[in-house]
Amino acid sequence: MKIVVLGGAGKMGSIATQALANDQRVDEIVIGDYNLENAKIVAEYIGSPKITI
User: Fold this and answer.
1) Mind listing the pLDDT tens digit of every residue in the chain (53 residues)?
2) Number of domains the chain is built from
3) pTM confidence score
4) Termini Cα distance of the chain
């Protein structure tokens, strides 16, 4: 399953992104956010190879 998380670098979005990264049914997660730097920080913090920006 492929997921796009809009607002994925915000407080709620980052929590949702982390939960999705731990879900074995999810193959790919794209973080969509207006703040590219925060999206990069969230992706690096979670550290899942499933995540792209």
Assistant:
1) 999 999 999 999 999 999 999 999 999 999 999 999 999 999 999 999 999 99
2) 1
3) 0.89
4) 17
